[in-house]
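User: Sequence in, structure out. Go.
Assistant: Echoing your sequence, followed by the structure tokens.
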Amino acid sequence: MKEVNKKNKITLLVSILYGVALLLSIGYLIYNIIKGDNQTNHLYLIINSLLLVIIIILYGMLGYANTNKLRQVLATLTSVCFIALVSFNLLVNIGVIKLPTADTIPDFSNKSINDAISWASDNKIEVEQMYEYSDNVEEFNIITQNILPNTLLKDVKKINFTVSNGPNYDKLVVIANMVSWNIDDALKVVEENFLNNVEINYIINDEIEKDIIISQSINGQMKRNDKLILNVSLGIKDDLVPVVMIDLKNKSLFESTLWLKRNGINYKLEYEFSDIIKRHNVISQSELKDTMIDPSSDSITLIVSKGKKINIPDLNSMAADDITRWIVDNKLRVEYSDEYHKDIAIGKLISSNYKFNDEVEEETVIKLIISKGQLRMPKLTSLSEFRQWAGKYNIVTEEIFEYNNVKKGEIIKFSHKENDVITPSDKVIIYISNGSPITIPNFIGKSKDTIRTECNRIGLNCTFYYSGYSSSKRDIALSQNKRSGSQVISGTNVSIGLSSGIASTFKVEITESLLSIGSSSGTITSLKTWFNSQYPNVTFTFITKKSNTFDNSGFIHESSPTKDGTSVTQGKTYQVWITE
């Protein structure tokens, strides 16, 4: 009985595991059918998962077969399907079976922008180019792309390429003092640092060995395109001997003239256009290869290539991508900028620094302004976003603030609807909410606490100051700087003048002890202290005057407006005259 129960449990476990395996394989097949189109090898995944489902189904049927013949047939089919699965994968991996795969983005690193533009055009993908300097990537070759290689092509509408402008010759480098170096060692420094404005002069010198640098015009920090002059020893004049002329054709002008200079040979240069020889390379020489050249008497003429003669085509009839291809093919340089234009379609030329049929040389900089199409009113959600957009495109704007139920500071509307074309003559008006208006109450006669509570309730910023004594009690409003009944925005400041209270009146008392006879300043000091303590919030000013009655200074003048017994009131100012 125990053995039967154990067998039943094992059978149940096997059935459960088989069911899980079957469900997983079917789920994997369904996933690959539905989601596999995001993979480049979609068909391969479907076939693989389908064979796997068939094998698992046959294997399960084999377990439930009730006759030997059926078991043999199912076992054979299972084996055949398994062999098919393994063989299929093997043949795909070794390339015998080639299944169609989804198109993907290629890796354009270090490839010409022309190749990328042609590919994008064939696949109807928009291209955006950004140029930056690079010491490692050749000019007009691609440095990076914003879409990773092997990304499915169907998901891509636009791709951005960062294109090399070649080395940055304005870059600062540090050059060692190379005086006493051999010129060949200095040339390595020139090459490694991309110096492009180097002049090497050979000078007869009886003391310094040939090919040794005598002087250097600049060292330390410099730009790559700064003029660097190296004066090099030609050695003793009598040591110069005839040399066998080499073939300078197709060599660079720098390399060719250096060979002539270090052999003491005089030369002159002439320039011609050439469709074959690279710009700044030698087209021909006046003396043929293997001719003996005597430095003391002979001179060589080099014909140097200006590159091919280039005539500016009708750029206005070309798309931006076609212009780029033409520029790259003709070894020109380009500076792109773009602008919105109401009449010129996107991607078309607005203007350039050269006109149709102008003649230019290789490496000429062509400055192009390309149309971004019509500028249309975008969806803007804040005043700062509107200002940023308008500033970027030099849009004439006007800002109008209005009372509105819309939250304060938020946009009510624009003068232009979303997607409207914006022309250079347009003024775009933005209407901004000041919130619901607040009516200024009449605060006069109310207490400070009552006013503060009312201001907080309705959204005003109320500030207080004391405007002086009055017939009203202290902290009662006497004035306000905003007229009652006027409408203002939330947060408006209202300044409230408060009463300092009802003024008190005092009688001035001046005793002889307060007078400093012989010192007007002493009397004034004593009186200031006394008045401040006895008559608070009454202001006194003191003036010294000559007296016809008192011979000494420091007395209260006989004509003083304020003297002993005078009545004074808080909040007012009184004069006291002191004899001098």
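User: And one key feature?
Assistant: The mean pLDDT is 89.
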